[in-house]
Amino acid sequence: MRITGQSGLDRQVFTDDMGRFEIANLPRGRYHLSALNPAATDQFTDPVELDLSRALSNRVSVNIFLRNDVITTSPKKEKPVVISVAEARQDVPKPARKAFEQALKLRGTKQYEQSLERFNRSIELFPPFFQAFAERGHLLIAMGRAPDAAADFARALELNSRYGPALRGSGICKFQQGKYAEAVQDLARAADAEPGNATVYLFMGTSYVALDRREPARAALEKALSLDPSAAVRAHVHLANLYLKENRLQEAAGELQAYLKIVPDAPDAEKLRAIEAQLRARLQKP
Length: 286
Hints:
This protein has a domain at 1-69. The strands form 2 sheets. The chain has a 4-stranded antiparallel sheet with strand order 2-1-3-5, with no helix packed on it. Strands 4-6 form a two-stranded antiparallel ribbon. A hairpin with a 4-residue loop joins β1 (2-5) and β2 (10-12). By secondary structure, the chain is an alpha+beta fold. The relative contact order is 0.08. It contains 12 helices and 6 strands.
């Protein structure tokens, strides 16, 4: 478990065998909680907001649900890949290119250790291979090695400061570290390089939510859904939270309904259905 606060607090604790945790001696204020499962690094959580400024009790219970990072395929036709000038000018040796392509295939089938070995080989054969650094960084995120991933993204950006996958990865790492303002900066640049990537806008929107910047959060989350409704499905929950903060109950209930229609078996589905039912009950009152 990780908790970050606006005052700069950044603490981590382990749960017990039942998944329970306790974080003691927190001053009043607003915090964000997130979790990672070391035994299943492809599971993650969206940050959960905790406001202790109005807490009436010295003890507050928070439920956090891990979910799988499922790779979804959009029904839309893929757009042609745009090759940058920096990529076009690269003279990557064939053995390095072959190792790189092998690494991508192995990563796609979740053979992470073998994929890592192939990425390492491609970089060994061609040290300025910024694409390999960036893609190895995304592999390391999936393996739960965020600090190593951040270093790879930084190296890729040294070689090509405008490379979209590296900017996206750097933003995701900073998001996971609770550095939401810095994450937004990288993700905004990634959006310029990869305007059709829903993941960029999903993480950007979630970062804005954490910063309580509602309008840019809403715009980014809606953009993510417009690009890929399946990959960005969790944006519905974040939008619901934004509408709840503004007491827009009808819109909040609609977003929860949309999410549950697509992901009826989500780990927190029961909780979200209860919230939706409560909202609709309130809407029926005169």
